[in-house]
C-alpha cells in the first residue's frame, strides 16, 4: 500500500495566511476564536499565521494598543490590519512627463506629483527627473523612504520579467535599459516595472471605465497603438510580456507608415508628433478634404487594430485611452465597424482616468504585490523586480 | 469594534474537498491521520469531506473492500480514489465525420469509434449519426450509459455558455442549434459543448505538441481559420466564447474571399472544399504559376491571421492543426514572417494529435468538469451544459 506523501506545505501556509489576512482586512478587528470559526482552520494554524503577520508589522493586537491594564482578567486578544504600516508608489514614465502617486497599504492615495521632461531627454536625465519627483512627493507628504513597501513603474515598451525594457522606441535610449535594476538603487523595497498600456488597463478596472468588467482590452491609442488586456480580472502580459503590441500588424500588409497615413501633402508628415497630428484633425474639422482623408485612414487603421485584438481575445469591453481618445469621432466609427465584423462585438468606452490612468495602474500593481507578499509571510515567494 | 462576519463557508468546503481529493488521487490510499497531516485541515473537516466523497461513490474504504474481519483490533481506516466509479465521453462533430472517445475517471481511454457523415447532412441526421456512434462504442466496451459522469462535445462555431451554437456556418442548420440541450436528452450526466479549435488546444496541451507550454495558440487552419488559446494552462474562451475567431479580420480590409484567393482561373473556386484546395496545392507543386500564386496568397493570409493572434496574445508556442497543417510548406513561411514582424516571435509546431485532437480535447473537458465536480461534493456549483 502506498503512503500519503504529496502536498506542498509552503503553499498551504500561504493559502492559510491569505485566508486569515482576507478575514482581518474585511473587518475592524477580530479574536482568534472568530478567525478560527470563519476560516475553518485549526486554532494552532491561525495562531501561527497571526504571529507571522504581527512579526511582519502588518497586524497589531488591539489590547496591546489600548493598554493591557484596561481590563481585569484575561479578555480575548483582538487583532487588526495596519494599513499605515507602509506605503506604496505608482510611477509613470512618459515621453513628455514623469508622474508619481503615493498611497498607504490599502491603496488610498495620499499625495501626487508630476514634472515635465523634454521628449529628447536621454535615459539618465529622464530617470533623474523621476527621482526628483519622488523625493519631492515623499518630503511633502512627510513619509520616510524606508516606509515604502513596493514601487510600481509604468513605461512604454515591452518589459521583461526582470524589469528590463526589451524594446522601447518611444523614448530615447530606452531599448535594453535595465529599468528595474536602475530604479531599485533608489529604493529598498521591490520595484515592479510594467508596460504602460498594461498598467492603464489595470487602473481602468480598479477605478475607471472598466470597474464593472473583468474582460477588458485597454487601447492606448496613438500613432502606434499598444494595448493591455485583463482576462478574468487579471492582467494578461503574454509569455514574453509582448501581448497587445498590435502596432506591428500593419507591417505585414506592407501598408503605409503613420507618417504617410496622416500626411496632407505629398510628403510624409514631419515631425510626427501629437501637435502635428492634432493640427491635421483640426483641418479635417474645418472641412479640408485631404485632412479628412488622412483622418479617415487613421481611424480605419485604429479600427483594424482594435478588431484584431477583439477577434483574438473576445473582451466584454474595449476602453480607448491615450491621446487619440481626445480626438473627435473615435468612438462612433469604432462601434460601427466592430459591430459589422466582430462575431460578438464588445462594448466600447472612453477612458475615465485620462492622464492619471498609467500612474494609477502602476500604484495598483504595487498594491497587488504587497498583497501577494502579505499572503507569503514565510518569505517563500520571490518578488518580480 | 467590528465583528468578524465575512467568509463563504461553501467556498471553504469546496477548497477543503479539493485539497483532500488531490491528496488521495496522488497516492494509492491513505489514512485520515495522513490526510490531516498533509492538508493541514482539522480532523473533523477531513472526516466530513471523506464521508461526502464516499457518498458520491468516488472514494472507498480499503478495509471494507478487503474484508473487515481480516485484522484484529481497530486498524486505521484507509481510503482510495475510485477511477472506475464512472466514465467520460469525448465527442467530435465535424463536417465529414463524427467521432467518440470513452475513458475512465482518470482520463484513460478505453475505447473509440468514428463514422463518416455527408457534408450536406442536416442537424438531425448529424446528431443521429453521433448517437449511433456513441451507442456502438458503449456496447462494444461493455459500459452502461448510467456510468457516464460527463460528456464533452466539440463542434465548429461559436458556442455560448448554455451550449447553444451562436454561429456555425461550417455545418448545415447549425447556427442557433441548442446543441447542449439536444444532446442532453441522450445522457443523464452533464453535457459540455465547446468550440472545436478550443478543444484541440486543450488536447495538444494534454498529450500533444504543447505539453511543455502553458501559453499556446492552436490554429485550426483551413479556409477560414479559427483558433483556441491556452493562457497559463487554462482555456481562454473570451467573454462571449468568440475568442480566436480570427477569420473575420480580412473582411475589414475588404480583401478577397477564399474562393477568389484560391482560384487559378478568372472565376471563384467552386466548390470550395478540401479536395478542390488540395488540387490547387498539387498544381502548385507541379510548377503551375497561377496555382503557386494562389498558394502564396493563401499562406500570406494564414501568416497575417496567425500574426494578429500572436501580437494580441504573445503565446510561447503556436500549434498548427486542421487540414492546412498537412499542406507542404506551411511552417517555413510562418516562422519566417512571424520572426520579421512579431516583437517576440513564438515557437511554431505542427499538431501531434492530427485527426484525434478535437475529440481528445472534448474528453479532457469532460474530465476537467468531473474533477471540478469532485471538488464540490456539496453540489454548490452549477454544471455548464
UniProtKB/TrEMBL annotation, chains A, B:
UniProt entry tagged with the keyword Kinase: yes
SUPFAM superfamilies documented for this protein: Actin-like ATPase domain (SSF53067), Winged helix' DNA-binding domain (SSF46785)
Pfam families to which the protein is assigned, alphabetical: HTH_IclR, ROK
Record-level Gene Ontology MF annotations: kinase activity
Boundaries of every HTH iclR-type domain copy: 20-60
Record Gene3D superfamilies: 3.30.420.40, Winged helix-like DNA-binding domain superfamily/Winged helix DNA-binding domain
Protein's UniProt keywords contain Nucleotide-binding: no
InterPro entries the record matches: ATPase_NBD, ROK, Tscrpt_reg_IclR_N, WH-like_DNA-bd_sf, WH_DNA-bd_sf
Keywords attached to this entry: Kinase, Transferase
Family: Belongs to the ROK (NagC/XylR) family.
Name of this chain's protein: NBD/HSP70 family sugar kinase
Taxonomic source organism: Streptomyces africanus
Amino acid at each position: 500500500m502506498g503512503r500519503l506523501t504529496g502536498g506542498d506545505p509552503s503553499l498551504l501556509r500561504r493559502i492559510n495566511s491569505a485566508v486569515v489576512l482576507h478575514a482581518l482586512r474585511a473587518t475592524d478587528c477580530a479574536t482568534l476564536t472568530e478567525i478560527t470559526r470563519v476560516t475553518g482552520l485549526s486554532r494552532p494554524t491561525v495562531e501561527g499565521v497571526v504571529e507571522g503577520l504581527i512579526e511582519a508589522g502588518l497586524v497589531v493586537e488591539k489590547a496591546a494598543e489600548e493598554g493591557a491594564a484596561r481590563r481585569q482578567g484575561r479578555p480575548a486578544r483582538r487583532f487588526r490590519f495596519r494599513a499605515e504600516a507602509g506605503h506604496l508608489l505608482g510611477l509613470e514614465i512618459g515621453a513628455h512627463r514623469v508622474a508619481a502617486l503615493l498611497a498607504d497599504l490599502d491603496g488610498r492615495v495620499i499625495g501626487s506629483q508630476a514634472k515635465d521632461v523634454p521628449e529628447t531627454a536621454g535615459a539618465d536625465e529622464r530617470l533623474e527627473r523621476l527621482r526628483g519627483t519622488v523625493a519631492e512627493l515623499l518630503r511633502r507628504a512627510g513619509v520616510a523612504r524606508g516606509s515604502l513597501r513596493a514601487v510600481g513603474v509604468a513605461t512604454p515598451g515591452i518589459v521583461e520579467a526582470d524589469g528590463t525594457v526589451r524594446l522601447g522606441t518611444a523614448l530615447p535610449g530606452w531599448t535594453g535599459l535595465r529599468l528595474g535594476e536602475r530604479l531599485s538603487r533608489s529604493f529598498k523595497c521591490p520595484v515592479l516595472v510594467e508596460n504602460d498600456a498594461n498598467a492603464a488597463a489595470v487602473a481602468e478596472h480598479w477605478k475607471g471605465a472598466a470597474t464593472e468588467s473583468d474582460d477588458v482590452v485597454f487601447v492606448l491609442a496613438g500613432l502606434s497603438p499598444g494595448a493591455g488586456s485583463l482576462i478574468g480580472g487579471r492582467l494578461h502580459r503574454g509569455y514574453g510580456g509582448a501581448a497587445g503590441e498590435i502596432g506591428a500588424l500593419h507591417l505585414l500588409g506592407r501598408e503605409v507608415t503613420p507618417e504617410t497615413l496622416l500626411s496632407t501633402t505629398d510628403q510624409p508628415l514631419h515631425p510626427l508628433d501629437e501637435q502635428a497630428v492634432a493640427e491635421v484633425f483640426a483641418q479635417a474639422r474645418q472641412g479640408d478634404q485631404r485632412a479628412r482623408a488622412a483622418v479617415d485612414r487613421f481611424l480605419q487603421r485604429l479600427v483594424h487594430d482594435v478588431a484584431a485584438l477583439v477577434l483574438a481575445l473576445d473582451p466584454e469591453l474595449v476602453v480607448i485611452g491615450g491621446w487619440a481618445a481626445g480626438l473627435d469621432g473615435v468612438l462612433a466609427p469604432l462601434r460601427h465597424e466592430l459591430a459589422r465584423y466582430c462575431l460578438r462585438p464588445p462594448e466600447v468606452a472612453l477612458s475615465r482616468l485620462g492622464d492619471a490612468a498609467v500612474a494609477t495602474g502602476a500604484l495598483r500593481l504595487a498594491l497587488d504585490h504587497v498583497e501577494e507578499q502579505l499572503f507569503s509571510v514565510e518569505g517563500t515567494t520571490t518578488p518580480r523586480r
